[in-house]
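Could you help me review a protein record that somebody else here produced? Do not assume that whoever made the record got everything right. The record follows directly below this note.
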Amino acid sequence: MQFRNLKEQYHRLKKEIDAEVISVMEESNFISGYQVMELEKELAQYVGTKYCVTCANGTDALQLALMAWNIGVGDAVFVPDFTFFSSGEVVKMVGATPIFVDIDELTYNIDTVKLENAIQKVQKEGKLIPKVVIAVDLFGQPAEYCQISKIAKKYNLYVLEDGAQGFGGRINEKKACSFGDISTTSFFPAKPLGCYGDGGAIFTDDKDIAEMLYSLRIHGKGKNKYDNIRIGLNSRLDTIQAVVLQVKLKAFREYELDAVNEIAKQYTENLKGFVQTPTVLENYYSSWAQYCIVLKNKEERDALKKHLEKNEIPSNIYYPKPMHYQEAFVPYTFEEKYDVTEKVCKTILAIPISPYITIEEVKKVIDKITECLIHK
């Protein structure tokens, strides 16, 4: 059994993907081919923003956004404590200070009450200037942007949407990657929309920001790549990855999102009562980057993981260590409590989900989870 079953996805899309990849190789247009610009237009149209700027990976996308806003030394950037390392790493990369915020116990996204408290505390201390909220769309569900946007407006902060796991999710009819002043996503293979390597994209409605990003992603170029008007990155999406994404985006829109939501529904209906199943808020729609259950304690979680492995069912722990415990952030001091994050890190477990998992595989996962918990 595959955790995300990318092999089956490739087999389904093989004819189209192979043809597009071969055409790129025959044209030998490997860097910044016309297909990259076509993809950017398709992605912007799908998400509902005016501009999309692709780049080399999701981490670069976040860093480029901060660079476009000139975030740096003396600035405070608020980041959920429960997320992948890059959400906080990019803050240090530009010289700013990450301020970690505990998460909501149901959605695992940033807790908006604790966010406002953290902003007020930084303001009161007067050592840093609050500048940005990085809101992560964890596991496929958008963060609570209605409240986040109100808080950001109140304190004059930018909102940077980290939609690496959220692409395809939505609130009502507004799609993930359109909620931030700048929004980003990742095309890492296991993401809801993934390529065959690394890739990323940045979304905005601001023309000036888009122009800045086009420059920053190619060494801060001006009129051409030999005219450099600022310090930037080498962060381009390869043409081969662009054509793979074009094929996958079509499948993603036509049937993959519906399929993965049906699998999530089956899990929730059959596992509720045995474990804490994911909560999708009213009027929210998840793209299910992961389906994560929460157990009573670490011992129960670890025993279940071992039981699944014994039965050849893959599982993963997202994430075993809170951001504020990461050694890379040791120079910073954190006086806040992160009770929810620390509890979730010890009790969460991700089980296989994808548009291509079979009904038989889903039944096996459900049976082995309930079997373990009933006979513990």
Q: What stands out?
A: The longest strand covers residues 129-136.
